[in-house]
Specification:
Layout (H helix, E strand, L loop, with lengths): L1 H15 L14 H21 L4 H6 L1 H10 L4 H15 L5 H16 L1 H24 L10 H13 L12 H5 L17 H9 L6 H22 L5 H7 L9 H13 L10 H9 L13 H11 L3 H11 L5 H8 L14 H17 L3 H4 L12 H32 L5 H40 L1
Helix pairs in contact: 2-6, 2-7, 6-7, 7-8, 7-10, 12-13, 13-14, 15-16
């Protein structure tokens, strides 16, 4: 049975790995990946810009690296002179304490800690492209619901291959979802860290920053893998049943099993007297059906099957399965609802969004405003909707309790995955904001006092 599962999965993965995502390249989709790529590309420009915010001691220390940067980009003397003029202008720029602290943090990252910053960017640009590839596949309009499970499985295995020994990855989805990783990791010197970091590791094997960096990457890998194991539905029977819709797996015994599960899930859509089991058996070995090549549209292939009229119940279940949409179509469904929700509702809970949709649809159907719908003819003696008043009074309390529960859940998840935020950094930011606010208020008070003094003095002079 294990061998049968292996053959079936290999057939599914061969189809999933075919060049079906040629609509767009596997990079550049995803905010985090885009930011990492842009930061890496603009890092020399950031260095030149923030050199102007340095104090005199740091400018003297990094003068030679800056000139080397100019030489690397073949910058002529006229351009260098123009940049020095900008540096002088930046030095005179008036900034609040919060702004000064922000500049210091950026200077520390792009100059003082340039090596570790470049190493981190190497990991981001190398690993995030693996994770974002899954999202990109489903950004097109082509129906790919039958590949959801295979793509999830493949992206998870590709991610694990960065830091786990390959001999431990040839497992079934259920085993991968519960795989213990601690004793199966690659040595630090062999973990994937991106091209630039790999070159740095080979050229400077004894660098003092290397070992802490690799240990940090290893911990990040394990934390992310643990999160993916929990969140990815690798053991979902629904997604595995949808995979049987793919014509590429027709002729395998597991296809029959998964199609039976699918028709059971869609049983409420099928005729009560339909013999779906017999249809599935005949469909799985029907040599008269057209062949299917990797990259073809699965909807068009099934349309040919529909037209044959041989499998009415099975086709009804498949039609319902292929109507499940994903990716960009989900986002576009929200975009066309501008008359129901607005840009402020992006962080709404599902229950809140559902309530807003119900209320606004009702008001639109009745062609009324909320005031008109709940208006009383006699404001003084008219009957009051006590339930509505009670809900309004308790709404704030329920919302506060729900927010506290959400915060508690977030803290528990951070503890579970070992990603607690830096409380000292958060405290420093809050303190800086408070100090900046106090300084601004003092400045405004001084300006008002001076204005009043000038006004009093002007009145005295007139007398």
């Amino acid at each position: 049975m294990a061998a049968s599962h292996s053959v079936y999965r290999r057939r599914r993965q061969d189809a999933a790995l075919s060049p079906r995502i040629d609509q767009q390249p596997p990079a550049g989709q995803g905010v985090t990946y885009d930011v990492a790529i842009s930061t890496k590309r603009l890092l020399p420009a950031y260095k030149v810009l923030y050199y102007g915010f340095m104090d005199k001691e740091d400018k003297a220390l990094y003068k030679d690296p800056l000139e080397q940067l100019f030489a690397d980009f073949n910058m002529n003397e006229k351009a260098q002179k123009r940049i020095r003029y900008f540096h002088e202008d930046l030095r005179k720029k008036a900034m609040t304490q919060l702004g000064k602290d922000r500049k210091k943090r950026v200077i520390r990252k792009v100059w003082h800690e340039a090596t570790i910053t470049e190493l981190h960017l190497s990991v981001y640009t190398g690993v995030l492209s693996i994770l974002k590839e899954y999202v990109m596949v489903f950004q097109g309009r082509q129906t790919l619901v039958h590949t959801l499970h295979d793509k999830q499985l493949q992206v998870f295995m590709n991610f694990l291959a960065c830091f786990v020994k390959s001999e431990h990855l040839n497992l079934m989805p259920k085993s991968l979802a519960t795989l213990e990783l601690d004793n199966k990791l690659l040595p630090l010197r062999e973990m994937y860290v991106g091209w630039e970091a790999s070159r740095f590791r080979s050229e400077h094997p004894q660098h003092p920053l290397l070992k802490p960096f690799l240990q940090e990457v290893s911990q990040a890998y394990k934390t992310c893998a643990k999160y993916l194991q929990k969140k990815l539905p690798l053991q979902s029977e629904t997604l595995q049943s949808l995979s049987a819709v793919d014509p590429i797996v027709r002729g395998h015994s597991l296809t029959t099993v998964n199609l039976r599960k699918l028709t059971q899930m869609m049983g409420h859509l099928l005729p009560p007297d339909a013999d779906t089991d017999q249809e599935i058996l005949r469909f799985n070995v029907d040599q008269a059906l057209p062949s299917f090549q990797n990259g073809e549209d699965v909807v068009k292939w099934w349309a040919v099957v529909f037209n044959t009229g041989k499998y009415p119940a099975l086709c009804q279940a498949v039609k319902a399965a292929l109507s499940i949409f994903h990716g960009a179509l989900v986002e576009s469904s929200f975009s066309v609802m501008g008359n129901i929700i607005d840009q402020r509702s992006t962080s709404m809970k599902i229950s809140t969004l559902s309530a807003v949709q119900t209320v606004k649809y009702t008001l639109q159907i009745r062609n009324q405003t909320g005031v008109e719908m709940f208006r009383r003819d006699d404001l003084k003696f008219g009957e009051i909707d006590r339930r509505l008043c009670s809900n309004i009074s308790a709404a704030g309390t329920r919302d506060k309790a729900q927010r506290q529960e959400n915060q508690l859940e977030i803290r528990e998840r951070r503890v579970e995955f070992g990603c607690q935020p830096s409380t000292s950094a958060a405290g420093n930011r809050a303190e800086a904001v408070e100090n900046d606010s106090v300084a601004r208020k003092r400045h405004i008070a001084k300006q008002r006092k001076r204005a009043l003094e000038r006004l009093v003095q002007a009145k005295r002079m007139k007398k």
